[in-house]
Specification:
With about 300 residues, the chain is mostly helical. It has 13 helices and 3 strands. The protein has a 3-stranded antiparallel sheet with strand order 1-2-3, with no helix packed on it.
Length: about 300
Amino acid sequence: MQVYLETFIDYLRVEKGLSKNSVYSYEEDLKKYVNYLKHAGIDDFRKVTRKDITDFLFSLRNRISAVSISRILSTVKNFHKFLLREKISSSDPSDLIEAPRVDKKIPSFLDFEEINRLLKAPNLKNIYGIRSRAILELMYATGLRVSEISGLKLGDVNLEIGFIKCKGKGSKERIVPLGKVAEKFLKKYISESRQKLLGKKSSQFLFLAQGGRRLSRQSVWKMIKEMVRKCNIKKKVSPHTLRHCFATHLLERGADLRSVQEMLGHSSITTTQVYTHINKSRLKKIHLQFHPRAK
């Protein structure tokens, strides 16, 4: 069983090109699955039945959320499809199992006034404040994930034509426009801060910590939390909130869903469609608040 697991993980890492975090998530999910099978006396994936998988999912119901169970089932399904495709198994026991119904959460986002307060929070009188402003402006302008921001290289930025090249999930590359404001603060960061952070070292990465080290995802998280406290925003804000703001504000101003999907790097448009629900719920609130016959 361990050999087949390792073969599958290699497939995810090499052929599918998944990130370290994604591969780790698959490994953790499959550990739970294998541990359950071993306790049930099953020592061969080819002996697994549909009932074994449903019993496994049922055993998780009081320990984790429906969202997590749905994700684990997706992992198990992908694994059994792989075994079938590689002719290790002759059938897929997970084929007809449906995931538990999960209500889609509407992502949190900031309105225009809040996002402006957040973007203006960094102190531009020091190199760290300039870096923070450049990161915040870039995240809001492009919808990049925090891991994508951390992984950006200097050569990925084209300030002459105002585009940025980004490698997202599954090593999929996309091109996203920068916008004049993000472009302005990136130029300021590169000319005034980056070299000072770099010192005598060299680095291909765009955003750096002191001593020329690549700026970590955790550092970006910490910076955003600090800026949220500074400008007294009471909502729960994470780096992903800026991605939600990017998509929501584009759609509110008339952008088409396909273009937003492309800029976000979503493989399926159904993932992007969640942002249309934000617009609908916001319109409902506005109608309720201002229409004379709404109440």
